[in-house]
Amino acid sequence: MPRTKKKVSAVTGKTLVEDLKDLLTEGIVGTQEEVCQKLVEKGHEDVNQSKISRMLRQTIGAVKGYNQHGDIVYRLPKEPAPPTKKATLGSLILRVNKNEHMVLIHTSPGAASVVARLLDYCENEDAIMGTIAGDDTILVLPRSVEHVDLVLREVKQLIWDE
Question: Which CATH code, of 3.40.50.1980, 3.10.450.50, 3.30.1360.40, 2.70.70.10, is assigned to 89-160?
Answer without folding.
Answer: 3.30.1360.40
